[in-house]
Design goal:
The complex is a heterodimer. Chain A is mainly beta. Chain A has no helices and eleven strands. By secondary structure, chain B is mainly beta. The chains are: A mainly beta, B mainly beta. The A-B interface holds A 33, 41-45, 48, 55-56, 58-59, 91, 93, 99-109 and B 6, 30-31, 33, 41-45, 48, 88, 90, 92-93, 95-104.
């Protein structure tokens, strides 16, 4: 596709429910990043994939957060037993090469609200 | 741990005035990237600086990378309403997997 696509754009869930957020990166991009962005803050790193390998998940806030990219393209971020503090915008970004030394292309994000 | 500090948090300017945001890293960076995020939008890549002392220009925007590769600045000359948004700097963590982001500087044009 032309850019990074994320779905859904908005997600409202009740506390305790599980949610799944999808990211479709730019075709051919090796690297895929997930970020969490709170209002008025910069993006906070969650996890990084190089192709299908999850090389860094140090930013995931708890074991309720899980991400996968099984075929090295589309990625899913899953949050189990959601809590109110999980409310944020979740951004996905991809880059052509490996690592953090190349420009990142962001999707529009998923705005998650936990009631 | 490694940190990237960005100031100021906000800058209010009259249209036509200049705008500057500063970025400082606690460690030497291999490169620094600048992004712009419009209200309600997502970060959009502007530029990457790699060399010590590098200066790059994009029309009214001037980007600098310090000699020690620990600080950077973005200067906008004669701001326009289209410049409104939050400007972020970001540098790679030592692992080179992560980008460490500054908190951003929000450019606000006074009515």
């Amino acid at each position: 596709g032309a850019g990074v696509s994320q779905s859904p754009r908005y997600k409202v869930a009740k506390r305790g429910q599980d949610v799944a957020l999808r990211c479709d990166p730019i075709s051919g991009h090796v690297s895929l990043f997930w970020y969490q962005q709170a209002l008025g803050q910069g993006p906070e790193f969650l996890t990084y994939f190089q192709n299908e390998a999850q090389l860094d998940k140090s930013g995931l806030p708890s074991d309720r957060f899980f991400a996968e990219r099984p075929e090295g393209s589309v990625s899913t971020l899953k949050i189990q037993r959601t809590q109110q503090e999980d409310s944020a915008v979740y951004l996905c970004a991809s880059s052509l090469g490996g690592g953090g030394n190349q420009p990142q292309h962001f999707g529009d994000g998923t705005r998650l609200s936990i009631l | 741990g490694q940190q990237v500090m960005q100031i100021p948090q906000y800058q209010h300017v009259q249209e036509g005035e200049d705008f500057t945001t500063y970025c400082n890293s606690s460690t030497t960076l291999s490169n620094i990237q600048w992004y712009k995020q419009r209200p309600g939008g997502h970060p959009v890549f502007l530029i990457q600086l790699v060399k010590s002392g590098e200066v790059k220009k994009q029309k009214r925007l001037t980007f600098q990378f310090g000699e020690a590769k620990k600080n950077s600045s973005l200067h906008i000359t004669a701001t326009q309403t289209t410049d409104v948004g939050t400007y972020f700097c970001a540098g790679p963590l030592d692992s080179n997997y992560q980008l460490i982001w500054g908190a951003g500087t929000k450019l606000i044009i006074k009515p």
